[in-house]
What does this fold into?
Amino acid sequence: MSLIRLLDSTVEVAQAGNGRGAREAEAEALDAYSTIVTRVAETVSPSVASVRVNRRGRGGWSAAGSGSAIVVSADGFLLTSAHVVSGSEGGSATFIDGRELPFQRVGTDRLSDLAVIRVSGDGLSPAALGDADRLRVGQLVVAIGNPMGFAGSVTAGVVSALGRSLATSDGSTNRLVENVIQTDASLNPGNSGGALADSVGHVVGVNTAVAGVGLGLAGPVNGTTAGIISSLISQGRVRRGYLGIAGAGRPLPPRLVERLGRRTGLDVMEVVTGSPAAAAGLRKGDIIYEVNDAAVTDAGELQRVLVEDAIGKPLKLSMIRDGEPREIYAVPLELGITTV
It folds into this structure.
């Protein structure tokens, strides 16, 4: 039961005239809140490790930096933030049962700020992964990690906003991580890579940034994340398609909305010279509203189409040019290898 429903039921009971006062009703609501947070903490904390990374210096490898990580498989794979293990090949992961296990970095994807590490040990407790796409603003969430080096810390709050964007870079390519979760659950340095869980103990986010007092950000855990984890485990990296355009969402012309069954498209604001988009004849001012017959309303939806399977295969781009619909085909190349 969600916190909102618990509060609603408490109010209904208080209003039914059963003799309990407002303070008793409020105490019951707080007890329910505590019960949820306690249950989530007990469920998820065994799956969250405190991570200390080793980085090479002039004197060799030494401990430098810390964060958190989430167990995603019983055979030792953990999910964390890419910036936590950036520049490191390994370190140690400490669990709430006191075990300290060495880890090695398996793969890093800076463009999603996600990384996978692997510890040498058994008997691990994988976290249940949820679906951030089903979150609602106001929903209770619990953050578990190791802020300021304090292992196993738990904070709680609500989803403050959804659909935020987080700028990332791999040094040569910039990208926006879409649908980032904003929460008021207290986050501090060291929380990065830790779990953001819903009221049933499913991990719906990977804590990644502290944007200000009472404002934390977490990368979403959803179907896209599952694909990234799989690629990092199997290949050590994530391959993405590249078209070479920049754009933003824009309403379609009113006279075409009913005809096309779409209301919004992606306004092409820039086409990179020599890119697949340029080779296909895409122009600044075109409005893409479908890719392979699937709706595209903003840059995030186009990014989700440009997965590994799209590389080297023709994509049908349905667009509007000079006020009229038309179609062209573009063949994505691999991001980071073929970009100009």
In short: Residues 22-44 form the longest helix (23 residues).
